[in-house]
C-alpha cells in the first residue's frame, strides 16, 4: 500500500504530462491550418469563381425587354438591304489655264509705246485695240503709196493729153482720106497711135488699182486701213495698233507707256478661260483605280455651294521628282470665268470600282465613347448590340463596311431606348 503523500506526488506528475500533451496537440493543429489555403466563400467544387470575359460581354450586350417595355419604347426592326457603292477618291486639285488656249501678242515692229489700254486681269474681246506703237514701217508704206499714186496720176494726165492729140490726127486723116487727098496708110497709122495710147492708159489705171490693194494688204498686217484722207499725203500716219486676235483674259503683261518694244518679245499673254484645266493630285496607292474617262467634281472654298464637273483626259505617266505624286487632268467648262488659274480645292473622282454594302439608317446608329453600334433583333423582345464600321453617308444613312450583313434585322425605331438600357447595365451605380 502506497502512502498518501507519495500517491499525491504521482497524481500531480501525471496531470502535468497530460497538460503538456494537450498543448503539443493544439500547436500541431494550428500549424496545419496555416499551411492549408482557405476555401473561397460560395465556391463550388470543380468550378472557377470567375466567368470567361466573352461570356460576360455576350451577357452584357444582350438586352431582353418585357412585352410592355418593348411596346412602350416602340421598338421596330427591319432587315438590312444592300446598296451598290461606287468608290470615290477624294483628293486636291488646282485650276490652271488650258495651255492650248493661251496665246502671245507681239508687236509687229520695233517702236515706242504711245498708248496702253488694258491692265493685267482684264477681259478682252477679239479685235480689241490693246496698245498703240509708233511704227516707222507704216510711215514708209504710206510714203511709197503716196509717191507712186502721184506718179500714176501724172502719167495718166500725160497719156490723156497725147490721146487727145492722136484723136485729132486720126479725125484729120480720116477727112483727108474721104477727100482723096491722104492715103489710107496715114489713117491706119493714126489709128494705131491712138490705140497704143489707150492701152497705155488702161495699164497705168490698172497699176493704180493694184497699188491700192497692195498698200492695203501691207497696212492690214499692222492693223491699219487705207483711208481716202491718206491719199493726198498731207499727213502720214506712223502709229500701229496692237489688236487682239482672240478674246480672253490678260494673265501676263510686259508693256508700259513709253517703252521701246521689239517684235521678238511677247507683250501680252492672253488666256481663253472659257475652258480650264483641273490638275488633280494622285497618290501612288490610288493610281491603279483611276482611269481616263472617269468623271470628277471640283469644289473650292472660294466658291461656296458651287461644283464643277469634268472628265479625266490625261494621267501623268511619271511621278513628280519632289512630291512623288502623279497628276491627272480634266477639262472644266468655265463660261462665267468663275474658275481662275491658281485656285485650289477638293477633287472627288468617281471611279469605276464598286461593291455592294449593307445600308443602315440614321435612326439605327448609336454611339458611346469610341464605339459605333446598332441593335440586332435576335428574337421576339431580345436584342443584341453589334459594333459596326461605317463608310460613306448615303441618303439618310450610311453604308456599313463591317459588323453587319445583308438580311439581318436591325432596330430602326426605339434604338435609343435600347441604348439607355445598355448604359444602365454598364453603369449600375448611376441608377
List keywords for this structure.
conserved putative lor/sdh protein from methanococcus maripaludis s2 fold, OB fold (Dihydrolipoamide Acetyltransferase, E2P), 6-stranded antiparallel beta barrel, single chain, 22 strands, alpha+beta, 431 residues
Give a description of the structure.
The protein is of the alpha+beta class. The chain has four domains: 59-85 and 355-430, Beta Barrel (conserved putative lor/sdh protein from methanococcus maripaludis s2 fold), CATH 2.40.420.20; 102-135 and 243-270, RNA polymerase II/Efflux pump adaptor protein, barrel-sandwich hybrid domain (OB fold (Dihydrolipoamide Acetyltransferase, E2P)); 137-237; 271-354, Efflux pump adaptor protein, beta barrel domain (Elongation Factor Tu (Ef-tu), domain 3, Beta Barrel). The chain has helices spanning 4-35, 53-61, 67-73, 136-179, 184-220, 415-426, and strands spanning 62-64, 76-79, 81-97, 102-106, 111-116, 123-124, 129-134, 239-243, 248-253, 260-261, 266-271, 275-282, 295-299, 308-315, 326-333, 344-361, 366-368, 371-379, 382-387, 389-394, 397-402, 409-413. The chain has a six-stranded antiparallel β-barrel with strand order 3-12-15-14-13-16. It has a four-stranded antiparallel β-sheet with strand order 1-19-18-17. Helix 4 (136-179) packs antiparallel against helix 5. The two termini are 87 Å apart. Mean pLDDT is 81; it is low at 1-7 and 27-56.
